[in-house]
Amino acid sequence: MTRAVVVDDSHFMRTVISDVLESGGIDVVARATNGKEAVEVVAETEPDVVTMDVEMPTMNGIEAVEEIMETTPTPVLMLSAHTEDGAKATFEALERGAIDVLAKPGGEVSTRISAHKDDLIEKVRSVARADVSVSAPDITTAVPDAPEESYAENATVVIGASTGGPRVVESVLAGLPRSAELRILIVQHMPDSFTARFAKRLDDRTDYDVREAADGDRIGSGQALVARGDHHMEVSNYAKGRLRVRLTQDEARHGVRPAIDVTMESAATTISDPLTAVVLTGMGADGAVGVEAIKNAGGKTIAQDEATCSVFGIPARAIETGCVDEVLPADDVASGILSAVRKPT
Prior knowledge:
Structural class: alpha/beta
Shape: elongated
CATH topology of the largest domain: Rossmann fold
Strand order of the largest sheet: 8-10-7-6-13-14-15
CATH architecture of the largest domain: 3-Layer(aba) Sandwich
Order of helices and strands: EHEHEHEHEHEHEHEEEEEHEHEHEH
Strand content: 15-25%
Number of domains: 2
CATH superfamily of the largest domain: Methylesterase CheB, C-terminal domain
Helix content: 25-40%
Largest sheet: 7 strands, parallel
Number of helices: 11
């Protein structure tokens, strides 16, 4: 049985979250009212997973995550409000070692989380499986350009990730020089209130112009789109090196929206120029069908290796298709993409 610690400064929320988890067969072994208490009870109980509020007195969730990772490394799921400040704080927590995020429906204190109990239970179980011994990828904000390299014209890269993905996606983009002139589509399983902040973070920290996708958006060389939360992102048109996307709220696939498969399959059908599929850490099978579609369309395919994945689910299912060309550590994925799009000498 999965053993959890619930951390929230609201007695009401601690009770609601605990009741939801216990109804799903998760054993709540302790509760804490702030980050300082959380550090202590995690050390005492050694749970499989922690649900962590962001804003708390004495010690906030960000500080608590950092302390837990230093003293008793444990998978942490951040529960954050649907706000700009909440999203910003959550990414700080992810940077310090938290595994994933779930938005609190209805705000900091709300009964509405009970209506999303299946999502919470599934997310807690997924995060509990994460390997916290995996080192964070090497993220650099300054990538030396490589003008001497020659890359294929009009190449597109589709990147898919889930649990543990944000830091890896950031490291991959940070390793891609602008001179490669790639068009990049990113599907990260993430609540809809966080994808805009994720896109801004990537835009600030990489050489690429990154934004959250809007329906009908076009991108060309040196640009990237992040699929908007709760929307599938389809490649609807491709001409003269520029691609257009369509956002839909069609039925979820693999229980998720956006789905990696939707973007990859539509890219395989629509894009005639060089195409590369990349699947990174995450739970589930989303991306396997998409990788197969891109491989069958003549594209290149890359999967992150097990040793560097927080959760080796998505890459494993893709590898099982027999359609993955390379299996690489997180720090080598960017180099693998560049090799895939480099012109033969």
